[in-house]
Amino acid sequence: MNVVSVQNLTRRYGDVLAVNDLSFTVAAGECVAMLGPNGAGKSTTIEILEGYRHRDGGSVEVLGVDPARATRAWRSRVGIVPQGASDMTDATVRDAISLFAALYPHPRAVDETIDLVGLTAQRDTRLGRLSGGQRRRVDVALGIVGRPELLFLDEPTTGFDPEARHVFWDVIAQLRADGTTIMLTTHYLDEADQLADRVIVVAGGRKVADTTPADLGSRHGNSVRVSWREGETRRDELTTEPTRVVRDLLTRFDGEIPGLEISRMTLEEAYLKLVEEAS
Ligand SMILES: Nc1ncnc2c1ncn2[C@@H]1O[C@H](COP(=O)(O)OP(=O)(O)O)[C@@H](O)[C@H]1O
Ligand SMILES: [Mg+2]
User: Fold this and answer.
1) 41 CA to middle of ligand 1, Å?
2) Residue 46 near residue 81 (C-beta atoms within 8 A)
3) Ligand 1 atom closest to Cα of residue 155
4) Which CATH number does 2-213 carry?
5) How remote is the CA of residue 12 from the centroid of ligand 1, in Å?
6) Largest CB tally within 10 Å, which of 19, 86, 112, 186?
């Protein structure tokens, strides 16, 4: 069963085609990452799915409803963690989460929610006194306190230090294990690789890949990077014919090739190549 279904979605801002004929689905219980560089159209897409932005074309269904006609009942089933942080600064962690909990028919217990995002020690701290990473965890708490069936997270870990990122990844893993369908955006490849069952790569508003993290890595699995030194600079070439490249280099250098290295393409390189080819 599809929880999200998007067909030929288009959105422009003036001359900018921010979302360009995008189609994808998210099945119940899946964790899908929308991965792409800044300006790729991730936030625009997510906000259309959340019912906070209009679209210019295409059809969208989220939990069986067109989000452009969102009702209160529908909203209570969807959790949202927007890209910008919450700006209540005087409320304590506990107060802020209690306030949001009251908006939902079957909220998670407030203390349980605080424990889940790892803010137990900060429950009575005012939001204005939290670190950036802790504030972001409050945002996540506000997104999940209503026990949503579907959770949207827009760049949840941007600006986190590595430790905060790992804590956050554990939170997501736990929500997944509870059966929450999750769609998140990120520009971190390792995050998509770590969290997602499926990765939708976008660049310039277009979908350039929709596959598993493992497949994304092996997609250019036949590509090999041949690298060598030429004077002071290191040169390299991506190729599916490493033997030919090395033979050419042997002719050129007439003997030992300086600093020769041959390596398989990494996931990171496969991703960068996709984005590069699309732009
Ligand atoms: N409110 C807006 N007005 C005009 N242009 C916008 C607006 N929001 C986003 N854009 C443009 O649309 C494109 C996609 O932006 P966005 O959806 O925020 O991408 P991402 O979240 O992937 O960084 C960018 O070129 C951005 O500058
Ligand atoms: Mg964004």
Assistant:
1) 6
2) no
3) 21
4) 3.40.50.300
5) 9
6) 19
Give Cα 252 to chain centroid, integer Å: 44
**pTM of the shown model:** 0.85
Question: Dihedral of CA 117/123/126/130: which sign?
Answer: negative
Cβ atoms < 10 Å from Cβ of 237: 14
d(CA 68, CA 79): 16
Cβ-proximal residues to 55 (8 Å cutoff; 6+ apart), any chain: 9, 10, 11, 19, 48, 68
Q: What confidence tens digit (pLDDT) does each residue in 123-157 have?
A: 999 999 998 888 888 999 999 999 999 999 999 88
CB neighbours of residue 251 within 10 Å = 8
Using a 6 Å cutoff on CB, does residue 16 contact ligand 1? Answer: yes
Instruction: Give me the phi and psi of 233, to 5 degrees please.
Output: -105, 150
Cα–Cα distance measured from residue 32 to residue 254, given in angstroms and rounded to the nearest whole number: 50
Domain ranges of the chain: 2-213, 220-278
